[in-house]
Structure formats: C-alpha cells, structure tokens
Design goal:
Blueprint (H helix, E strand, L loop, with lengths): L2 H12 L7 E7 L19 E2 L2 E2 H10 L5 E6 L3 H8 L4 E4 L6 H6 L2 H4 L5 E6 L7 H13 L4 E7 L8 E5 L2 E6 L13 E10 H8 L15 H8 L4 E5 L12 H21 L3 E2 L5 E3 L4 E2 L4 E2 L3 E4 L3 E2 L4 E2 L3 E4 L2 E2 L4 E2 L3 E3 L2 E2 L4 E2 L3 E3 L4 E2 L4 E9 L2 E2 L4 E9 L1 E3 L4 E2 L4 E3 L9 E3 L4 E2 L4 E3 L3 E2 L4 E2 L4 E2 L8 E2 L11 H14 L1
Parallel strand pairs: 1-4, 1-6, 4-5, 7-11, 12-15, 13-16, 14-17, 15-18, 16-19, 17-20, 18-21, 19-22, 20-23, 21-24, 22-25, 23-26, 24-27, 25-27, 26-28, 27-29, 28-30, 29-31, 30-33, 31-34, 32-35, 33-36, 34-37, 35-38, 37-39
Antiparallel strand pairs: 2-3, 6-10, 7-10, 8-9
Bound molecules: uridine-diphosphate-N-acetylglucosamine and calcium ion (CA).
Calcium ion binds next to loops.
Length: 483
Amino acid sequence: MNRVTLRVYARRLYNPNMEKNRYAVILAAGKGSRMKSKRDDVSKVSYPILGVPLLRYVMDALSACGVNRLVTILGFGGETSKKIAEGRSEIVWQKEQKGSGHAVMMAAPLLEGKEGETIVCCGDTPLLRGETLRNLFEFHEKNHNSLTILTFEAQNPKGYGRIVRENGLVQAIVEQKDLVGEQHDITEVNAGVYVFSNKELFEALKHITTDNAAGEYYLTDVISIFVKSGLKVDGYKAYDPIEMSGINDRVQLASAAKAMQRRINENLMLSGVTIEDPDTAYIGPCVEIGPDTVIKANTHLLGETKIGEECIIGPNSYVEDSTIGDYAIVSFSHIVESKLQRGSQIGPFARIRRGSIVREKAHIGNFVELKNTDFGNGSKAMHLSYLGDIAVGSSVNIGCGTIVANYDGVNKFHSEIGDGSFIGSGSTIISPIKIGSEAFVAAGSTITDDVQANDLAIARGRQVNKPGYAKALRERAMAKKDK
Ligand code: UD1
Ligand code: CA
C-alpha cells in the first residue's frame, strides 16, 4: 500500500463523513486543439509535467480527498489516457464531444440514482491540491448544499464561466460566449470543479439543452436547473487561483510545470533537502529525498526515485526510477532503473542503465557504462569501461578500458568476476566467462576461457624486441624518399 492509499484508508476509518459515498468524474475527452499537435492519438491530459501525465495529478488529488469511486470520461486520443487511468479509475467513452454536460451524462450507467456526492473536475488542471478538494467537500457537507462550485477571483476572467449570485447564493453560471450586459463585469469565475448531490445531478442532466451560443450541452446549465428546483447552490472561493489553471496550450503547460516544480522543491527544502538552484532542479512528484542531501544545479530526478540522507546529487545529473542509499555521490551522470547503495560514488560522466546495482562504497568513474550489472561492495571501475550483464564481486578492480563483450549480434551472455580479482587495463571479456576470486587478468588480454581462483590469465601476443631495428627501418624509409 503506498502512502496516498494508506492516508485515504486511514481517513475512511476515522472520518465520520466518509459514511457518505464520494464519487468523482474526471472530464478528459476534449480534443485540446490549442496544443496544435499533428497527432490524433495523443490526448491533452497525457502531456507530462516532470515526467507525470496531467491526468495522474488530478487522479492523485482526488484519491487524497477520500473519493471511493472514480470515473474518467475519455474520448479524443483516449487510448493514451486509458493507459494512465487503467487500474485506478473506471473508464467511460464519450465518442463525440458535445460539451461538458454531455460528457458527464456518459457516466450515468455507472452512477445514476446512487446515494452520495459526486465531484466533477477536468483532467487538465494538474495544480489542484487534494487539500483544496477536501475543503470543498467539507464546505459542501457542513452547509448542506446540493451543489457547491469551486470559484475564484480572476484578474482576467475572459474565457471562464461567470458566477451570478443573488443574496450571496449562486443563481447561474454564464459562459463567456453567452454574457450579456453587466455580467461582463463579474470577476468571480467557475473553476470547473463542482460537488453535486449525485442523484440530483443525473436528474438535472436530463433537462439541459444545446440552446446556447456554442451549441453544446453545458454542464454549467445544471446550476440554474438546481436553483429552479429549490436546491441549495453555493460557491466555495479558493485562496490560490494558480491551482485552478487549466492547460489549453503549450505556454500554459510550461508555466504550470514551473509552478509544480516550485511547489515540489519548496516542500523538499522545508523537509531538510538542500537544493542549490531550485530553478534548475527538476524533481518529480513521487520522488523521495532524505534530509541533508544536496541537490546541485541542473539535475533531473524523476519517476519512482528514492534518495537517502546526506547524498550529493549533481550537478548535471539525471536519475529516473532509481534508489540511491545514504551518503552516495553522483556527479554529471545518467542513472535509470538502478540501485546505488550507501556510500557509492558515481561519475563524473557515468551511465548506469537498467537493472544495475552498485553496492556499498563502490566507485564508478568517468566514461564508465553499466547495464544490468551487479557491482560488488568496494569495487572500482574508474575509467572508460563497459560492463554489461555481469556480476562483479566485492573489492574488484576493473582496469581502465575494460570491455565486457556480452552480445554476439543475436544473444546476450552473462559473466561473473569473483571477489578481490584484478582485471588489467584494456582487457576484453568475451561472455559467458567465469573469473574466480583473487584472480589476475593481465592488461590487454582478450579472455575467452574461464579463469580459476588465484590464477593469472594472460591472453595476448608475446612481446618481441629487435635491437636497433627501429633505426634501420627509419633509414630505409628516408632512402626511398630521396629518390
Ligand atoms: C469550462 C466551464 C467554465 C469554466 C471553465 C474552467 C462549461 C460549459 N464551462 O469552460 O464555466 O469557467 O471550464 O476552466 O463546462 N469535455 C469533454 N467532453 C466534451 C467537452 C468538454 O470531456 O464534449 C471536457 C474537456 O476535455 C475539458 C472540460 O470538459 O476537460 C471542460 O471543457 P472545455 O470545453 O475546456 O470548457 P471551458 O470552455 O474551459
Ligand atoms: Ca478548459
């Protein structure tokens, strides 16, 4: 169970409000035409911020606010969204995009007639916090509302639905295209997030029409239907308009990414991590970092990465889906799907590829590449090597320029080097090979046969010196030139 599910689970046990069912509908069928993509198989909500698709941020926020049934409405480019939502959300298709109200109607077969509350939000608002949604639900329940709309004061309300109030309570939402007269002056706008009494929502959806400037089924028309039926409709004003930012184009994608980066980095700094230059530290939302670790400039830490205490990571490093133990040092290096144990040192200029483990206090130096390699405690490969599909024991020295030839063009082969062995510079190990412990491979050897423990292997042409022959060669060459 991850931390988020644990938190949700704990809240269900202790929060009396949770006796009420909380449903969620995420609207994610829209085309996102302002992204100006030439591809028709990529949905807007699958664009990433710090390696995580927009839709996942929204799903995480909803899970953190105690929702127990999640339905995502997919349409344009929906196969990419489906991969993101699958396993975490039920999926409903809206084949033709006839408006936000029409999109919610698609969830009727799953939710219609059910007792409980339904939160509706968009899949393109990654900055929404779980905490804000939780407060919205609490406000809704405390005030016995039938519908609560998340609103905010917009500096530039253009494009948003305007909140029309009377005696404090909300009467209607009027879309930009349908504004008349003084409605143009309203600055309180619809964030596009709502909590509805579920039964009443699906009842009201039966009565909305396409009789508006856009010719769409507006979800926002449900508001006046609620009001006319005498149901209590209220607005909950959020503090931080940044959270409401929807992503419609790539400029907004970049500015939301900046805001998310700032939020993540500030949380980490307040928890004891030093970030040398937060503007150039790109840290994903699932990354965990221990206290007193220093993140240096130009560093990407992405995916399910976990970093221990008192490490130094960067500058100029990239770490994805990897685990790094306490006191490790990584500089100018690229690390993917690997484990670096306590006190290991990587780089500068190393590449650690998937499935590798660098054990305690081992050193991987400059221009060394590891792939699917288990590199033992205290072992060293300091310069210019490739180690692929090999298990290296502890306290092994891999000389400069050692190459493991693990591939014959068709198959990959596995090799082993025992504890305490010494591999001389410029050696080639042609896999599969077993080298025993405390063995010695002479520099420049090409190893094609196994080496037993404590043996010395030399596999190279024997040296022959010819006295004075260099001079003779030179004289012969000069004589040719004079002719
Ligand atoms: C909507 C609201 C507006 C609010 C704004 C906040 C309506 C009618 N208006 O406007 O009051 O201020 O959000 O950002 O809802 N979608 C579908 N299927 C469709 C149409 C839309 O799934 O057929 C999805 C879109 O992918 C999007 C969401 O619904 O996630 C909102 O639709 P959009 O057309 O972007 O509405 P806005 O004009 O932004
Ligand atoms: Ca929108």
